[in-house]
Amino acid sequence: MEKKRKFKVPHPFVLICILILICTILTYIVPAGTYDRYYDEEVGAELVDPDSFHYIDNTPVDPFEMVQAIPTGMSEVGWIIFLVFIIGGSFGIINKTGAIEAGLGASINAFKKQSILLIGGLMTIFSLGGATFAMAESTLIFMPMCVMLAKALGYDAIVGMAVINVGAVIGFAGGWMNMYTVGVAQGIAGLELFSGMGYRIVCHAALLIIAIVYVAMYARKIKRDPARSLMTGVPEIEETKFDEENIPEFTKRRKIILIWALLCFIVLIYGITHGWSTSTQVSALFLVMGVVSGVIYGMKSGDIADAFVEGAKSIAFGALLIGLCRAMVVILTNGHIIDTILHSMASMLDGLPSIFAAAIMVPIQLLVNLLINSGSGQAAATMPIMAPLADILGVSRQTAVLAFQFGDGLSNSLWPTSGILMASLGIAGIPYEKWLKFVGKLMLYLYVAVTILVMIAYSINYQ
Hints:
70% of the residues lie in helices and 3% in strands. By secondary structure, it is mostly helical. The termini are far apart.
């Protein structure tokens, strides 16, 4: 008998195009509506007037406008796309020197017996990056290295991806010093900047422990039996292959290159935490890092240029996905249905007991992130509504901000509308359905945890 064909999630580009089509159809079904907006000088963002929602004439997006949304979306996030290309090119130069492979080889020898501790340590580092200086786009540059490291340690690409993505996402969910999510949300809610930090740190630690244990258990399982890996049968991509039999020698020049790269990352962290707000500064830093690495290794100028082009080509798939995902936001915005959906979600909380209303704020924010994938953008759109609504429901505004950061943070590992997630999967060579199978159960555990944490926050009148 002929075997039934299993359902297979389409190619990421096809999947996003299907979602773009669905968004377009929704503009014909969902009534158009809008909130009045105003610019708040103190917060430095355009905010929503929570009492101003009103329906307007429908503005459905026609098929040609749908197609136009793709280049429009790419234009709107062009700075991210070009940043990714420059980062990819710069690391292409560093990869050509063999410094990364040689460094990974040395790390493997040092941590072969403590590989689980290495996973936990790296997840903690990326998590602190997410919680403090909003590490998001920059996680892409580490993806090939972490995937190669995971494979060399006997794990699979999913472990390498989880170390970075899940780590950073937990940081966003904790967000105790993230200016772009908690900082913006607290400013809109009229709270003191980074107030309530103590409880947020406790939440961050609790979620990080759950995530590390989950990833470590999966890693240990597939190391004992590689056949249990979710990546079994998935072709390996060239950029993340690690040939343990031919590890380059860890020469003096290669050591200097890695030290130079580390110094550049220290400058990057300092710059981001001291006012760097444009991709121009970050791109320039990575460009210098790559070119100088080639010079240190003694590469000719033509070889440096070739390596840069090859590196940019290897990351083109992920960079284009970022722009493609943005097209959905363009369509929903042009169709004027984002505010209608947001208003409907907020209305669901009316009449609920306060403690349950507080808990339901989390899935509402999680669903909003499907439509608005920017943390600061989501804060600007939802907090002017959720903050006064929290007052009416008897929930503290600090708890409403906590629910926002949980919903926004965790969803960054789930929704295919996230350009960063889809780009990471493309770079790591992981099909979306395989990632969803891995991360879905973890997100369920984390969702239960954050629901409990929000209820605790309500019970102690978190301020």
